[in-house]
Design goal:
single chain; 72 residues; mainly alpha; Serine Threonine Protein Phosphatase 5, Tetratricopeptide repeat; 79% helix; flat
Length: 72
Amino acid sequence: METVDRTLEMRPDFSYVYLQKGIYLARQGKHADALGVLRAGENVELQRAVPSGVKLRGIREEIAKTAAFLEG
């Protein structure tokens, strides 16, 4: 997790790192935190000149899974 946090500090515009951090947090049982990180990653990707559909799909799938866990 230290590496992910360090990478986010250096490259806050790298949505894939947000995805990895969100997945890690969800596995640790920190679903609300994970959801916040995943949504931040989605916003980062949407701010790109040409957002990656593949990255957005992956992030949105994790958002849906995490949100469903919190609701359920």
